[in-house]
Amino acid sequence: MPLPPWSFALAPETGRVGNSQAALPTVTSLSEFDERSLVAEAQAGNRAAFEALVRRFDRDVLRLALNLMRRPEDARDVYQEAFLKVYRNLHRFRFECSFYTWLYRIVTNVCLDHLRRRQARPEDQAPELSAAQADDGVASFFERQREDRATLDPERRLIGKEIQQRLALAMQRLSPRERIVFEMKHYQGLKLRAIGDALGTTEETVKNSLFRATRKLRLQLGELR
Amino acid sequence: MSRREDRPAPGAMNCSQVSDLLPFFVCDELSAPELEAVAAHLASCATCAAQLEEERALFAIVSDAPQPADRLDPSGILLSQCRSELAEGLDQIAAPPAKTRVRPLAWLRRYMVLRPAWSAVFLVLLGIAVGSRISFLQTGEVDSGGSRVVRAAPPLTDEQLAKMAVAGIHYAPASGDEPGTVQLQLSAEQPYVLTGPLDDTGVRRVLTYVVENGQQFDAGTRLDCLDALRAATKEADVHRALLAAARKDGNPAVRLKALDALRESTEQPDVVEVYLDALEHDSNPGIRVEAVNVLVGSLERQGEASVMVLAPPPPRKPGTAQTPPSAPLAHITLVRVQRALENLTRNDPNRYVRLRSAAALRQIGPLENH
Description:
The complex is a heterodimer. Chain A is mainly alpha-helical. Chain A has two domains: 1-13 and 27-126, RNA polymerase sigma factor, region 2, helix turn helix motif (Rna Polymerase Sigma Factor, Chain: A, Orthogonal Bundle); 128-225, Arc Repressor Mutant, subunit A, CATH 1.10.10. Chain A is built from ten helices and no strands. Chain A has helices at 35-43, 47-69, 72-89, 99-120, 131-135, 141-150, 155-172, 176-186, 192-199, 203-222. The relative contact order of chain B is 0.04. In chain B, helix 14 runs parallel beside helix 16. Chain B contains 17 helices and five strands. Chain B has four domains: 2-64, no CATH class; 106-137, no CATH class; 153-263, no CATH class; 266-370, no CATH class. Chain B is of the alpha+beta class. Chain A binds chain B through residues 47, 50-51, 54-55, 58-59, 62-63, 66-67, 70-72, 75-76, 79-80, 83-84, 87-88, 142, 145-146, 149, 160, 163-164, 167-168, 185-187, 191-192, 207-208, 210-212, 214-215, 217-218, 221, and chain B through 1, 4, 20, 23-24, 27, 29, 53-55, 57-69, 72-73, 78-79, 81-83, 85-87, 89-90, 93-94.
């Protein structure tokens, strides 16, 4: 049941109206309301409720955008575009899935659009690692990771940097969809079913994308062995 | 990924099948039967077990590797910027025109607040002006319907005419010495009824405006106005309005009525021009036939009397329509009508118009001798 507009600002601590025990109404934080109530309020035009929803999810959204776009200005564009789309289309949300899933469907679509646009403009692509860097191999990449994790010697920071570079290069060679699936699985920790819901596709399709992404990454990183 | 789709039922998997499932084994995305089958295979296959170690190493690399987000926004400044920009974006969306209150004369209020002395003088003068205006208006009557009856009211301005709507027209024809009276129910900024004789210029101005600006009024209103105006076709303004309606009105019934109102004025060159124009160019066959009838009838009358072409024209009164044509002009008219009729006889798409034109040519043939 939608909450009255004033309830966000002036609700007694008990949450009940007309309680004579409550000397003064106290401000109830929007974060205390459940997701469904917030969405319903936002749909009714309550801007504060919408902003509360944004704050509930926007950290993860920006993180996803940064990991995928790897450029702060692009991630900022994705953030802005995605949440404005959510705001404009909030009336279309019918509670048939979780708000989180619906939000991620919009966010991932915006990310995919940006990544595809970037692919179409080679000048916009982030500079790749040089061939020299790529060939600067170590005897066994995987072996070294096992050793490095076991030790805390000063070399580890350097190797960590190398891992980051190799991984960035490998991720760059994934298709936009593979990159999103891999990101949502490994960095957002989502189950394949949830990723499928967010991308508007089946779990099996997501599984295939993840498999291809993993194989590509293994090939890229395996070259170092 | 076809090789995954034709995967056999879990139970006895080979190395290739297990290899495909290892990435999902590592990230805990296998179903219970798959998990059981893979575990059984791994227990007895060193190669696949080694591959599993590599998968785990890859998974660990990915999991442990610092994410770009950690490097690109370590302090959360970017998140704050994004929130701020989003709030601005929402402000822009959430400021629809409906929210902006219409404040008429807001500039005047601001001006008056800043200049109280001048404002006081202005208000006194405004009060005097409004007071005198009200006393002037109080000379009028108010009818039972709340509409103001205006007699000899100042004529409507061009702007009022442009915004005017006509709700009804009642024309009482002349009886005896009494001239015909027109009652117009108008709405021009405010509803009122304009009543007056047809010789009242204010009344005629409204009627002729309606006829000349057909696009603003419905055809029924224009026909009603023409009904009233046909009693005053000798007036120059009415004459001009009828000519305009006959030429330009989009409705054939209105054009026909305007031409009909002018049929008694065919001795005037501009009326003949309008009829010739209708004869040659009007899209409606009924109007073309009417033009044939009127022009031929007019020419016959002229031929029979031979007066129109020979007699000197009567002196023209100021404010009245044009003088009758001279003899050479009448001859030119005859020639033009003949040519137009010949053209219609040959080319008009309507059979009746062709037949009527041929008959008309035979009717006016003898006139050439005059």
